Amino acid sequence: MLRLPAHEVLQPRTVAEAVALLAEHGEKAMLIAGGTDLLPNMKHRLFEPDYLVALAGIEELRGVRDAEGGLEIGAMTTLTEVAESPLVRERAPALAQAAGLVSGPQLRNMGTLGGNVMLDTRCQWYNQTYFWRSALGYCLKKDGSKCHVVEGGQKCVAAASNDTAPALMTLGAALQFAGPRGPQELAIDAIWRPDGIWNKKFGRDQILTAIRLPAAAAGHRGAYGKLRDRGSIDFPLLGMAARVDRDPAGAVADADLCVVALQARPTRVRKAAELLRGAEPGSPGFDEAVEAVAQAAHQQCRPLDSIPGDAEYRHLMVPVLARRTLRAAAEGATVGVL
Question: Is 180 left (phi over 0), alpha (psi -120 to 50) or beta?
Fold first, then answer.
């Protein structure tokens, strides 16, 4: 039986109290939201904090709110609430779909949007028991000096596996933080670093409090598609979010395509908007534009063996998922799980 290491749970009632507790205990403390990823990782001795600062009792961190035509979503809002929110479904369909495809229903009832954004990177050589990892001499991400994915690699390539991240990127989301240096707001694109050990640019002493989405353009549509072994529970082998904004005549006015589970940070497919802009869904020109984006994604996206699943198969599935996700977005439909 895998047991949790000894620790103390601290239960602040306000964000200010939580910030103070993190500052007081420093590296000995970690935040816990829903705990669906952190607690298994603690059982595997990937994290061994002396203190867990629990955010569950801070009511101001919950809820979906209108924000000048956009949305403000508290970081402790559950993934189920995000997926089922009429406001999110109407204004940010890709985010609603992505939240609804995280794991299974029980974990979505506990897991939070903020927790999914902050999800630790994953690797099949890292997300194992202490005994399993010790037999291999550990790895760059925890306790060792060797990368088992890239021979001679000096940088961790554990993969970002947070389904909601690419959807939030296509929506132009901004993240609000509280910390010892005061409040801070960062565009979600600005938070990522290409390092699987810690793939975020902000401090571990900061608390994600809310996610803000700007008002969507007229004619906005979005979709999220996910490749995984089973129809539930699994992390993505590949995840892809698409945004297609259509003008009054029905043609594509703007577009975006973002991918996750390939490397340490979510990735934007270059030239997606350029290739799709002006094409009219349902026309041969749109099909040609979608195919051009699919091939661009296939060329740009190079899966590694950091997560389970054959890397070459995942590479072959990149254009397949790109086609399906873009078409679903243009039609206001869903992709679901491949």
Answer: alpha
Rounded to an integer, what distance in angstroms lies between the CA atom of residue 147 and that of residue 98? 30
What is the bridge-based pairing of β-strands 238-246 and 220-227?
antiparallel
Q: Which of 207, 213, 276 is nearest to 58 (CA)?
A: 207
304-324, pLDDT tens digit by residue? 999 988 999 999 999 999 999
What CATH superfamily classification does 220-333 receive?
A: CO dehydrogenase flavoprotein, C-terminal domain (3.30.390.50)
Neighbours of 231 (CB within 10 A): 12
Query: pTM score, two decimals?
Result: 0.96
Residue 138 to residue 146: CA distance in whole angstroms: 7
> Whole-angstrom Cα distance, residue 307 to residue 124?
5
The CATH number of 8-56, from 3.40.50.970, 3.40.50.620, 3.30.43.10, 3.40.50.2300, is 3.30.43.10
